[in-house]
Specification:
Blueprint (H helix, E strand, L loop, with lengths): L23 E4 L2 E7 L6 E11 L2 E7 L6 H14 L5 E5 L5 H4 L2 H8 L2 E5 H11 L6 H10 L5 H8 L4 H5 L8 E3 L4 E4 L2 E8 L6 E6 L4 E5 L21 H15 L5 E4 L5 E2 L1 H25 L8 H4 L6 H20 L3 E5 L5 E5 L4
Parallel strand pairs: 4-5, 5-6, 6-7, 11-12
Antiparallel strand pairs: 1-2, 2-3, 3-4, 8-9, 9-10, 10-11, 12-13, 14-15
InterPro entries: B_lactamase-like_C, Metallo-B-lactamas, RibonucZ/Hydroxyglut_hydro, Sec-metab_biosynth-thioest, WH-like_DNA-bd_sf
Protein name: MBL fold metallo-hydrolase
Pfam family, one: B_lactamase-like_C
Amino acid sequence: MANADELQLVYPLGDTLPASGGTLEVAPGVLWLRMPLPFALDHINLWLLRDRQDGREGWTIVDCGIDSPSTRAAWEQVFATALQGLPVLRVIVTHMHPDHIGLAHWLTERWQCRMWISATDFGVAQLARNATGQGGDENADFLAAHGLADGETLELIRHRSDHFAQLVPALPASYRRLLDGMVLHINGRPWRCMAGYGHAPEHMSLHDAQGGLLIAGDMVLPRISTNVGVHSSEPEGNPLPLYLDSIARTAAELPADTLVLPSHGRPFRGLHTRVQQLQRHHDERLAELMQALRQRPGSAADMLPVLFRRELDAHQTTFAMAESLAHLNMLWHGGRVQRSRGADGVWRFTVATTA
């Protein structure tokens, strides 16, 4: 069922979705694919762009899906039915999260082509493959220090030390670097890279001004708010202002009637409206945190019921804790709250005397 914010957006394709292993044309030479994910967020949108490079006709893939048998099978069906006998010429990855980069190694090896990605996200993906990602003792201890006390959830996190590597079992050994403002010529048309921050280290959206298209990745989603979180690898991080600045820049630079191609949900028009909705959403969450903290000091875990009105499973709780900390750290860095660590080892936030 659509929420009130969704009703303010326009969905040119209505409720039509591509079948797994199938495609839908959203603009001339731009095909929409939808691949399964084994999470509550059960799909990711991927894109096929008709292209030519160095005199060769073919296709550019944008984003890959996780490495799983079902995703590989869906891609094989796409290759058999949608490519018109032409090869894949390159694979563009908007950012390093597993549902976007997971199959990049397989796709680039299969088609003997290069992965294109920002240098920051390529490097962080390499680190994530060799680190604990969102699991392991370090992450469990980090969340416990911010008030997460459920023993079952913490134990699940401790045993999920190779979560990233399970979804991304390998990475391409080499890549081609994407930079903010860089123009990619795809099928003779210029697509401009737009760097975004806060959700991933250096997320790259792609804007086709001639066609009025934005491949937005995860930066602007129509139904849900983009996950912006603080993790154990950067415990004092302040990603939320970076994210808000990024989407404000997008709205300032792109026309209101841009057709947004998001990584989750349906293609939509109403970019400026959606950015305003997301800005209002975070302003409201920050105000609710301030109100709660005026009643009594609290940890990030204490603030989960304030920010999330639904029951969370263990997987969702890790993302929710990261989001809670992103909002609290924004208030802390802005001088509106203070934090201190109690004798029990838990960080708690309280309203600053000057706020």
